[in-house]
Amino acid sequence: MTEGNFVDYVKLYVASGNGGKGSAHLHREKYIEKGGPDGGDGGRGGHVIIRGNENLWTLYTYKFKRHFKAGHGEHGSKQRSTGADGEDVYMDVPLGTVVRDKETNDILFEITDHGEEKIIAEGGMGGRGNWHFKSSTNQTPRYAQPGIPGQECEIILELKVLADVGLVGFPNAGKSTLLSVITSAKPKIADYEFTTLKPNLGIVEYRDHQTFVMADIPGIIEGAAEGRGLGHYFLRHIERNSVLLFLVPADADDIKKQYDILLDELKRYNPEMLDKERLIAISKSDMLDEELKAELKEELDNNLPIDYLFISSVAQKGLQELKDKLWAMLQL
């Protein structure tokens, strides 16, 4: 799924370079009647290398260009001259990118560090020149090795957002509004469902100049794990979060039921999600008077299995308490 410049899933074709041929040259020089073999080796074919870049946030670079080919190694030449290696191709990706084999869907590796390099297609070795094959019984070999062909394959790049806290909730739960209030992020906000069509990242400023990263994941609907709605495209982004913040609006018909549905979707997508720290924030609580809040609190105390708190992004109530709670959970 994409909106604007956000791209988090692409299929690519990559091919490394062929190795250069070895030379079968025989030395020729005035006054040297039998100079013997002096053919050099072929150069190595270029690699296709995937490299982590912390300055990138999406796979937008690969939205239009889908084929990447490295250079071929040059052939060896006389005087034992080795051919030049083929030019390597570097493919920069954001941190959190998973590389899969398109045919088997197996994970090949993940890029999590800035500057980390992994060869996805190795260049072919250059062939050896004829001077390698000279011996007492074969003093004038007139053959050399051909270069080894490069590799080619189709791969999938899949971005999983690296954030400390992931916002999980139904559409219109107030995730984008919360992110816009407690971070410098400026997600699009409107009064209709499925406003968010891409994950938004924001940096939350905490006490003593400390910070943590929060991600607003597009709204999950019931059946998302089976592919319904938009949310199933983005469930992968929640896998990287340390803490899951469930946002349920105060005007929901059944807060406990909404939480259970969201939790079940995450469990069906990946059971390991349940091992993460979880917190429930009751959003839009400015709509509740003290009497309604007291009744709701009593009901939640008896039904909710995890901690919860009341917040209002619009009225900016409970936000510092939310930051304190999230920070404490991130330190565990």
Please outline what is shown here.
The protein is α/β, with parallel strands linked by helices.
Question: H/E order of the elements?
Answer: EEEEEEEEEEEHEEHEHEHEH
- The total of helices stands at 5
Largest sheet: 6 strands, mixed
Distance between the termini: 34 Å
Strand proportion, as a percent range, falls in 15-25%
Strand order, biggest sheet? 12-13-11-14-15-16
**Which percent bin holds the helix content?**
10-25%
Rg calc: 29 Å
Could you tell me the mean pLDDT?
84
Structural class: alpha/beta
Low-confidence stretches: 189-195
- State the total count of DSSP E strands: 16
> Per the principal axes of the C-alpha atoms, what is the gross shape?
rod-shaped
Characterize the structure shown.
The protein is of the alpha/beta class. It has five helices and 16 strands. It has helices spanning 175-182, 231-238, 255-269, 290-303, 319-330, and strands at residues 2-3, 6-7, 9-15, 48-52, 67-69, 89-93, 97-101, 107-111, 117-121, 152-159, 165-168, 200-205, 211-216, 243-249, 277-283, 308-310. The radius of gyration is 29 Å and the shape is rod-shaped. Residues 189-195 have low confidence and may be disordered.
Fold blueprint:
Elements: E1 2-3, E2 6-7, E3 9-15, E4 48-52, E5 67-69, E6 89-93, E7 97-101, E8 107-111, E9 117-121, E10 152-159, E11 165-168, H1 175-182, E12 200-205, E13 211-216, H2 231-238, E14 243-249, H3 255-269, E15 277-283, H4 290-303, E16 308-310, H5 319-330
Parallel strand pairs: 3-5, 4-6, 11-13, 11-14, 14-15, 15-16
Antiparallel strand pairs: 1-2, 3-10, 4-9, 7-8, 7-10, 12-13
